[in-house]
Design a protein that fits this description.
The protein is mainly alpha-helical and 267 residues long. The chain has 13 helices and no strands. The structure holds heme C (HEC) (5 copies).
Amino acid sequence: MGNFFPRWTNWLPLKLAVAAGFIVFGASLAVPYYFTPKYTRVGYEPTQPVPFSHKVHAGQLGLDCRYCHSFVENSSHANVPTNQTCFNCHGAGKGNIKSASPKLELVMKANETGKPIEWIKVHKAPDYVYFNHSAHLNRGISCQNCHGQINEMEVVKHAEPQSMGWCLDCHRNPELKLRPLDQVTNLNYKPEQLDRSTFYQSLLGKGVKADEIAGVIAEGKTAAGLKDLLALADTTYGKTVTQLEVGTQLKKHWQVQPPDSCTACHR
Ligand code: HEC
Ligand code: HEC
Ligand code: HEC
Ligand code: HEC
Ligand code: HEC
């Protein structure tokens, strides 16, 4: 009889035990990380006291997010508007849009009593997390990156996990998300809609040297001016502007460096 089990199999039980230990340990980290509550919170869509539609107001009517969420660019907190904002259009005065509609009954009543409408919160970071809206919006991150396509939602729902891993994914690769500042509340923004010439012109206009821009497009390249840059971008990225093209330039020249130290988000 030959030796059925080669010598190394003596170690097999030990190896299996060690591997199992690692798997259990790994899973115990992975389960809370990926499944509770971060992933299950995606899709959370509470019924609000008033059937307010972002699809109508921000989508069809094209109101800018900041018309209602007026502090979002200047404050850590994104405010929900007061009744007064609704009354600009739905009030009994000049606007008077649908003021007799049953869907607006609560809004009308709230205005008489002066009590705010009790909107149900959709997004909530735990108290031990420090988060600041303006620090993101003023650096070229859009509402869309963190809240999804709100302008198409009849009812707001939690579109992104907003977990620690999710924050860090972007902090480590912000070039995949950065966009020009005037586009942060344009939820339909696509980099391919940008005019390449205008984009590079705006960087040059801010005093960035053509050589520095060229070096970001392709390692070691130089450029005398806009014309060279456009030619270089065409050969590197193709005919249309890409996210990486915009993102790597903005990251470099705005010196965007999102923190990943624990104390940045847990103070
Ligand atoms: C006409 C006013 C108005 C405009 C314009 C508006 N919002 Fe809102 N928004 C509200 C109101 C009222 C609520 C609270 C009720 C709800 O959740 O629908 C809200 C809630 C939200 C929430 C959820 C808040 C929470 O509880 O977590 C997000 C996110 C949001 N808005 C993003 C946006 C974005 C992005 C835009 C621009 C595309 C925008 N809003 C435009 C009025 C507005
Ligand atoms: C800039 C003007 C404007 C503002 C501000 C505004 N709305 Fe509206 N709202 C409209 C228009 C226009 C419609 C669509 C009316 C239609 O369907 O003909 C509408 C429709 C609605 C409807 C549906 C009414 C129905 O019977 O179909 C509700 C509910 C509503 N708005 C709530 C709100 C609330 C709550 C706020 C404040 C957070 C608000 N609106 C702020 C202009 C506005
Ligand atoms: C970098 C990610 C990020 C961006 C960009 C962002 N948000 Fe938020 N938003 C969050 C997080 C995280 C929360 C939960 C914050 C908390 O609980 O303190 C939140 C909460 C909110 C709330 C609820 C506030 C409350 O207390 O009820 C509103 C409204 C809101 N965001 C609107 C916006 C709008 C409008 C924009 C764009 C102009 C925007 N956000 C951009 C991540 C983001
Ligand atoms: C889509 C990309 C993106 C996401 C998602 C994101 N961040 Fe950021 N964050 C940035 C960028 C860009 C900056 C700006 C860095 C700079 O100014 O150099 C930043 C800066 C910060 C800062 C430093 C500025 C300050 O306010 O002190 C903190 C803290 C922070 N983020 C926390 C968070 C937390 C918490 C989350 C998740 C809830 C989050 N971020 C999600 C891109 C993102
Ligand atoms: C970019 C922001 C950011 C950074 C940097 C960060 N965290 Fe967090 N952390 C968060 C957010 C957001 C949550 C809340 C997650 C949630 O609610 O899903 C969190 C949750 C936690 C939790 C709670 C455990 C859990 O899964 O609910 C611990 C523990 C933690 N962080 C430790 C750390 C440590 C240690 C570091 C440094 C290595 C760190 N964090 C760096 C944003 C951050």
